[in-house]
Amino acid sequence: MAHILVMGASHGIGLETVKAALAAGHRVRAFARSAARMTLSDMTLSDPNLERFTADALNPIDVASALEGVDAVVQALGVPVRHLIGPVTLFSEATNLLVPAMEKAGVARLIAITGFGAGDSRDAIGPLQRIPFRLVFGRAYDDKDAQEMRIRHSHLDWTLVRPGVLTSGPATGRYEVLATPASWRNGLIARADVAHFVVAEIGRAFYAKRAVVLVG
Question: What's the pTM?
Answer without folding.
Answer: 0.93
